[in-house]
Amino acid sequence: MKILHVDTSITGPASVSRKLSAEIVEAALRRHPDAELTVRDLAAQQIDHLSSAHLAAAQGTAPENAQVREDIAAGRSALEEFLAADLIILGAPMYNFGIPSQLKAWIDRLAVPGATFRYTESGPEGLVGNKKLIIASSRGGFYGPGSPAEALDHQESYLRAIFGFFGITDVTVVRAEGVAISEQARATAIDSARGEIAAIAS
Fold it and tell me: Which of 20, 68, 88, 100 could form a disulfide with 63 if both were Cys (CB 3.0 to 4.6 A apart)?
């Protein structure tokens, strides 16, 4: 088994999503001690957002800028890691009702026609449905199903949509909500998420 662990939070040791994703990885490695683990920290090693230079390169124009060449290679490496993985463990906090821009930049490198999806006469078809995705989700407030702010969730809803577009339907969300309300709410949310991790591990 190959496990890809991706973190995206910019808050370092204070990050709830990092804490939870690390614990999910530990649980996965206990179940699969021989697994091959690849770690990608998108806050520490950012992939650039797509630009006209990237588009030109995709259309066959060799980039003259060395930084663009290096970034295209980094994007290709990210895609190869993703394609090779059986299990993706993704730390994804909610920023301003959506996902971190670093995470969006990474996803943009995965959305490659012929690699993760294709268009057919009957509509788009995902090409990587043989993977499992576990999302460690953290949110300052409450945006879950049935909450008054549910319509503002463009974090988990987007992640389910884009990875579903790639064909991944085996998606589990380990969620810690309300972590910015108070220290007690934060602790309660983390404890609840840890219960979900324990259930997954069993």
Answer: 68
Say which CATH architecture domain 2-201 belongs to.
3-Layer(aba) Sandwich (3.40)
**Binding site, annotated residues for FMN:** 9, 15-17, 94-97, 138-141
In this structure, is the dihedral angle defined by the CA atoms of residues 14, 15, 19 and 25, taken in order, positive or negative? negative
Percentage of the residues of the chain whose pLDDT score is greater than 90: 84
**Which residues line the annotated binding site?**
9, 15-17, 94-97, 138-141
Give per-residue pLDDT as tens, 4-16: 999 999 999 999 9
DSSP string, 140-179: SS--STTSTTGGG--SHHHHHHHHHHTT--EEEEEEE--T
**CB-CB contact of 90 with 135 (8 Å):** yes
pLDDT in tens, 71-102: 888 889 999 999 999 999 999 999 999 999 99
Distance CA 7, CA 40 (A): 7
pTM summary value: 0.94
CA dist 128 and 126 (Å) reads: 6
Q: Say if strands 117-120 and 87-93 run parallel, antiparallel, or are unpaired.
A: unpaired
List of E strands, 51-131: 87-93, 117-120, 123-126
